[in-house]
Amino acid sequence: MRLRFAADFNGRVRYDEPMSAHTSWHAGGPADALFSPRDVDDLSAFLRAVPADVKLYWVGLGSNLLVREGGIRGVVIATPGAFTRIERRSQTRVYCEASVPCARIARLCVKWGLGQGEFFSGIPGTLGGALAMNAGAFGDETWRHVLSIESIDRRCQRRVRQAQEFRVGYRHLDWPPGAAEEWFLSAELAFEALAVNAPHSVQSLMQRRRDTQPLGQWSCGSVFKNPPGDHAARLIEAAGLKGYRIGDAAVSDKHANFIVNLGNARAAELEQLIRHVQATVQRTHGVMLEPEVRIIGEPAPAAGEVAAGAIALGDAGGSAGANEGRH
Question: Which pLDDT tens digit goes with each residue over 112-127?
Answer without folding.
Answer: 989 889 899 999 999 9
